[in-house]
Amino acid sequence: MPRTDIELGYRLQFLSVLTEHGELDRELEPAIADDTLRRMHRTMLLARRFDERALNLQRQGRLGTLIPAKGQEASQIGAMAPLNPDDWFVPSFRETPAAIWRGTPLSALLLYNAGYNEGGKPPQGWNNLPPSVPVGSQIPHAVGLAYAARQQGGKQVALVFFGDGATSEGDFHEALNFAAVFATPTLFLCQNNHWAISIPREKQTRSKTLAEKAFAYGMPGIQVDGNDVLAVYAAVSEATERARNGDGPTLVECITYRLSMHTTADDPTRYRKEQEVEEWSKRDPLPRFQRYLIERGLLSEQAIDEMEKEVAHEIEAAWEETQRKMHDHTDPLTLFEHIYREMPPYLREQRDALRRRLEPPRG
Amino acid sequence: MPRTDIELGYRLQFLSVLTEHGELDRELEPAIADDTLRRMHRTMLLARRFDERALNLQRQGRLGTLIPAKGQEASQIGAMAPLNPDDWFVPSFRETPAAIWRGTPLSALLLYNAGYNEGGKPPQGWNNLPPSVPVGSQIPHAVGLAYAARQQGGKQVALVFFGDGATSEGDFHEALNFAAVFATPTLFLCQNNHWAISIPREKQTRSKTLAEKAFAYGMPGIQVDGNDVLAVYAAVSEATERARNGDGPTLVECITYRLSMHTTADDPTRYRKEQEVEEWSKRDPLPRFQRYLIERGLLSEQAIDEMEKEVAHEIEAAWEETQRKMHDHTDPLTLFEHIYREMPPYLREQRDALRRRLEPPRG
Amino acid sequence: MAKLTVVQALNLALHQEMERDASVVVLGEDVGVDGGVFRVTDELLARFGAERVLDTPLAESAIVGVSIGMAIAGLKPIAEIQFSGFSYLAMAQLENHAARMRWRSQGRFGVPMVMRCPYGAGVRALEHHSESKEIYYAHTPGLKMVIPSGPRNARALLAAAIRDPDPVVFFEGKAIYRAFREEVPDEPETLPLGKAQVVREGDRLTLISYGAMLRRTLEAADRLAQEDGVEPEVIDLLTISPLDDETLAASARKTGRVVVVHEAHRSFGAAAEIIARLVEKAFFHLETPIRRVTGFDTTVPLFAREQAYLPSVDYIVAVAREALSD
Amino acid sequence: MAKLTVVQALNLALHQEMERDASVVVLGEDVGVDGGVFRVTDELLARFGAERVLDTPLAESAIVGVSIGMAIAGLKPIAEIQFSGFSYLAMAQLENHAARMRWRSQGRFGVPMVMRCPYGAGVRALEHHSESKEIYYAHTPGLKMVIPSGPRNARALLAAAIRDPDPVVFFEGKAIYRAFREEVPDEPETLPLGKAQVVREGDRLTLISYGAMLRRTLEAADRLAQEDGVEPEVIDLLTISPLDDETLAASARKTGRVVVVHEAHRSFGAAAEIIARLVEKAFFHLETPIRRVTGFDTTVPLFAREQAYLPSVDYIVAVAREALSD
Ligand SMILES: Cc1ncc(C[n+]2csc(CCOP(=O)(O)OP(=O)(O)O)c2C)c(N)n1
Ligand SMILES: Cc1ncc(C[n+]2csc(CCOP(=O)(O)OP(=O)(O)O)c2C)c(N)n1
Ligand SMILES: [Mg+2]
Ligand SMILES: [Mg+2]
Question: In 3D, which of D293, D289, D297, D299 has the Cα closest to residue D326?
Fold first, then answer.
């Protein structure tokens, strides 16, 4: 009786389907329709090129602070592909590839990055939340969204993205506990990209993995190779099925890496070694997935070259459109809109006063 | 390689030294000096009677809302006895027995319960924080206190009390993570008394135990019979030694029970069965400890009777003193004190205006 | 028509709104089995079930954060924070998200939720159970801040808040929870948010107040009428934000003398904004400085001294006489 | 004597105060290895070591809560919250504990800590990086709220805040972090908290401002002097709470005309309290309503429109002319 062991029965696994060396585990290979695989690849490529192009527009001063996703495309597309448009997508701030998959026009993303509120409007037909900047603060929303879906008789799940750093926030803890207590159909997808700005994963928390934090809430957790789009797809499909069947939430930790700077305001050379970045570049999810698709006969070198051209045009067209929109959206009075559904009198007064001030040519 | 198990190497134990049936585990029996054992017992008895007396003063309308500790004396005294006066005591709101052990005059406790700020002043010579009402909010303080002690070359530890409900708050999570990351000499003592007002432990979180939540931070955790003062003493001594040796924090979960109402504003019959209370009354920590001391020849039935009389007098004397103090502390102008170390001009103006208003006999 | 306390009136509003609209849900600590520590949610669980009445874990930020998600997805959550003194734990969710989601999504997603909190001093409670920090919410664009003063308007305003398409912070004065009863119609009733009420017509002086302090303000008005023979006009704000400055300014223009009463701290409190609006809209009608009768800029003391902290009827009367005298 | 930016001046204050007092520690996200996302804590880690310069996990409530514990036990923590828009996560720790510990312990324990936050719009930043919600802290008894306007007073006020025995919330205007340089003496220098400064002597009009908006207010004053031949008096608040109303009232009594400028939302903002104090202390000297030039009661828009949200020099000049015209 004295010092008795308490059996916890935890089991934590690491899932990998396609290794960086191209070894494929046929048993775990998820069944994905060919055109879905092609769409996944095209979106990853598009997102990568979009990231690069946006970065140079930012360097030219055409866009504001950017948050690159380079290196995390597999974690995001692998997580989005199993979901339906009416499932809830709850992004953090680095989910550009996921947003593209979820029907967000490139021009809207660029418009947002150019500092226009209008860019944040989610696309019709998709249950996408806009970006959430305060780290971890969006996690509880995914619990409420999932609860509401079930409550209204729906079968939707809510998938929320957050980073390794976000696991230190109180909202992460409170939200996972709520989800477990109410068994909501929520998927907690942590992109462990090894860094929270300058803070490495090991300094963020002392636990061996982030996935195991799920156990503190009596929730299943799994760790996945986040640069292996097939593994992420498999893990999220599994968790989604559990959630739709009423078996509650899951925490999925994707091991990935931020190949670029934290934001365009950040200088990573102050805190991390180039060599570490090089190491991870070898695990780049994009070429790995391309090799797989080529071996499966779904892709060819020249198909890729074709696609590169298409994608480049698509991005340029989007930038053209964005610039046109920037011209249409010059009216500052719109900053009073959408604060409340109906504009209260004092806001109308403030708006009208601004209008009057703007009428005479400024001195 | 595909689905590989990750070895977590967790080990969670339940510690019990003296069972409710009086079985003693000699091997685990902590070495405690006789007079310490006597003081522990006397404080538990005093606290129990104080609790009862305060309750009836409250019923007479002499005191405000009270927070009974009945049933949790072993968890608190067992945790306090191993510490030194200069160790930091960070209470929640239910730690009256602990506060008594830590040199707090009964009259101060009563004065506080009578609604006088003056009652909250910690006793000289003890590093006691005053009560903290917002659930879980005091937990991070114990991390800072412990960090500061070490930083200044001290050997003190900080022990913070909180309940089962508090483990759901973000501050619990953030604080334990900080403590683990900085390896602070902090003891997290959770009194799992099975209820958070009307919310039972099982509805608070889905984890099997609260102790295992420590693992999410890479921190050791242990579960203890919280009605067994020897087991609590042993677990806290062990954790304290680890902390003093620089081996960092520990989470100790004491399994105990709130035998009384949540506060005097609460009606437990709305949410729990009398029978559950009766079951737990059989595990009352006080008689259990008394039997042990009698068997060890450190106590006798009539010694207890003697002590009961002493304790009753002590409490009455304290109430007399409290009433005198209530007479001395009628000046409302003191409500402006201790807001800042130096009273800023506008506060002085407000105080002087109040003084002027109070001078003429009120209409 | 029944004579109800504020607690009963709020409970009635909750029952009727949940009856009326299946998307209304209630969540918070002890709101279910226990019926709320003040019994405001009494019998809701028995009547509407655990799917719609959630006893939550002890976590304010999540209570509000989860409510935000629920509201976006089509529910109308009513989140109870057990005491306003603990609502600051949800401040980030309110400011960062509840108040901004409609704007951030450019109209795609609203957050029709209510955060209910008992607030205010006067009930001999513990520390943190006596605060009146409505300014935190009133200064936050995107939120509405409502504080009723009695059973009938409490019921009508809570119903209106629940039906409002935007997030509403709803403070309930503990001191008036059971202090008195009022006739409350059985039929559902609402009051428009953003509208103040002239609750006593007058001419020589305007007294502006809200929440639990309205009663003392009305008592002071009676005293002034009886003892000084003046007829003070008394305005009940009801909604702190959006502030109905037109009603306030109209009265100030009429009387030229204004005293604002609230229990919140004086500095940077609601009275300051009222003064600023009246200076903007009625300056040349003011015959004397607008005066403030408020709680002090101190922590609310433990209960032995809370009455010294709170504006008393005597204090209101005294300041009103000053205002009348110059 | 060197010409420094605000960032460099703050960095100097940190270096000198940590040098001067071994109990001063710095903690926050990215304050160590990275030197702070704005470099305000640059080189502190290298010089004072990881024991005194803590790169913390990503948790604002704990950054402040742990700081409170440190301060009680004798350290002087300087907590950096990376942007004021995230400081609401620490609101509960500030209101429930930092602001009350001295009172709760009846003088036994003070909380000599500083919470530093970059605040304000104008740098083309992301959402939540442009807020100016100083009122949340100014309305909280037990806290002091300080906002410098340039390199020299930023350095002196930060040093004073660090040495202050009570908790200070210290907002740093991102828009002036690197906008200009000033001579800053090499020797440590402090300014008293709670004191405003008349930074431009005048007679016909008083312009009151603080933080990043002071520059625009001074520009407006120059324009008024050149184009209208009036000499506006300009007051820099420096400390929002405790508010130095004597300095404000003295100027208002002299000029009779006052315009208050800040970028925070208008309603329930600092200008309202300033107006209330001046109505109390200078009413009969006022020749025209005190006017407000502030940010709107809207969410701060994304950067394409942030200049439309912020008070412009034109706007200040226009309102000042109104004030002068009646
Ligand atoms: C509450 C909050 N605190 C601080 C910040 C500033 N900040 C933005 S991103 C970031 C690091 C986030 O790290 P992680 O969660 O790992 O996500 P990642 O950036 O790696 O995608 C910080 C500190 C913020 N946006 N929100
Ligand atoms: C932040 C906060 N939320 C709510 C409350 C109201 N409240 C006081 S005690 C309590 C339950 C606490 O349960 P637990 O942590 O288990 O401690 P116990 O009361 O059992 O000792 C609640 C909800 C509070 N004081 N603080
Ligand atoms: Mg990261
Ligand atoms: Mg409990």
Answer: D289
Mean pLDDT of D43-64: 98
Residue B43, both tokens: 């404080």
Q: Give CA–CA dist B218/B241, Å, rounded.
A: 18
Of the candidates C324, A336, C29, A144, the one whose C-alpha atom is nearest the C-alpha of residue B165 is C29
Distances (CA, A) of C260 to B177, C31, C236, C320: 47, 35, 10, 10
Helix (H), strand (E) at residue A195: strand A195-196
Which residues surround ligand 1 with Cβ inside 6 Å? A 94, 133-135, 163-166, 193, 195-197, 258, 262; D 29, 58, 60, 82, 86, 89
Those residues with Cβ within 8 angstroms of residue C112's Cβ, 6 or more apart along the chain or in another chain: C71, C76, C164, C165, C166, C167
Pairing relationship of beta strands C168-173 and C144-146 according to DSSP bridges: parallel
Contact C176, C84 (CB under 8 A): no
Nearest chain A CA: its distance from B17 CA (Å): 6
Distances (CA, A) of B273 to A298, C43, C56: 65, 19, 21
Q: Is the dihedral of CA C208, C212, C214, C219 positive or negative?
A: negative
Q: For residue C220, with 0-12 CB atoms within 10 Å meaning exposed, 13-18 middle and 19 or more buried, which class applies?
A: buried
What is the C-alpha to C-alpha distance for residues A209 and A164, in angstroms, rounded to an integer? 10
Positive or negative, the CA dihedral B236, B237, B238, B242 is positive
Strand partners for D168: D114, D144
> What was the pLDDT predicted at B2?
67
Burial class (CB in 10 A: 0-12, 13-18, 19+), A360: exposed
Partner-chain contact A130 C68, CB within 8 Å: no
Average pLDDT over residues C19-41: 98
Question: How many other C-beta atoms lie within 10 A of the C-beta of residue A34?
Answer: 11
The answer to whether B258 is a known catalytic residue is yes
Task: Give all strands (DSSP E) within C193-231, no chain letters.
Answer: 197-200, 205-209
Cα dist from D70 to A331, B84, D90, D103, whole Å: 50, 19, 16, 17
Give how far Cα B235 sits from Cα of B30, B75, B231, Å: 9, 11, 6
Does A200 reach chain B within 8 Å, measured CB to CB?
no
Closest CA to A141 of C22, D92, C111: C111
- Residue of B53, B262, B283, B288 with catalytic role: B262
Which of C23, C24, C22, C30 lies closest to C54, judged by CA?
C30
Inter-chain residue contact D89 with A170, CB threshold 8 Å: yes
Angle at A218 between CA A213 and CA A222, to 5 degrees: 50
Length in residues, chain A: 363
Q: Whole-angstrom Cα distance, residue D252 to residue B298?
A: 78
The DSSP call for residue B153 is: T
Residue D231 and residue D204 in contact, taking contact as beta carbons nearer than 8 Å:
yes
B137 interface with A at CB cutoff 8 Å: no
Cα(D197)–Cα(A322) distance, rounded to whole angstroms?
Answer: 47
B166 Cβ below 6 A of ligand 2: yes
User: Is B324 buried (19+), middle (13-18) or exposed (0-12) by CB count in 10 A?
Assistant: exposed
CB contact, 8 Å: D275 with chain C?
yes
Q: Tell me the C-alpha distance between A193 and D239, whole Å.
A: 41
Q: Which of D29, D55, D56, D58 has most ligand 1 atoms within 8 Å of CB, for mutation? A: D58
pTM (2 decimals)?
0.98
How wide is the angle at C-alpha A147 spanned by C-alphas A144 and A150, nearest 5°? 150
What ipTM was predicted for this assembly? Answer: 0.98
pLDDT digits over C69-125, tens only?
A: 999 999 999 999 999 999 999 999 999 999 999 999 999 999 999 999 999 999 999
Chain C residues 260-299 within an 8 A CB cutoff of chain A: none
Name chain D's partners: 3 or more CB pairs within 8 A: A, B, C
